[in-house]
Amino acid sequence: MSTHEDRPQHVPGQSPDETREQVLPRGKPFPLHEEMAIDGLTDDEEEKFLAAIADA
Question: Which of 23, 35, 39, 55 is deepest in the core (most CB within 10 A)?
Fold first, then answer.
């Protein structure tokens, strides 16, 4: 298994040394929407949460 240190550093303006086919298998898929959703927020909590995301 390769680690971050094993991978070449990307230099802006240059092509990466690895192809998309080499990189994609290492990626992790997002969890299902149902697993990521936050249920049970009050209207006030939801408003504060969305404002915090907008400011990030």
Answer: 23
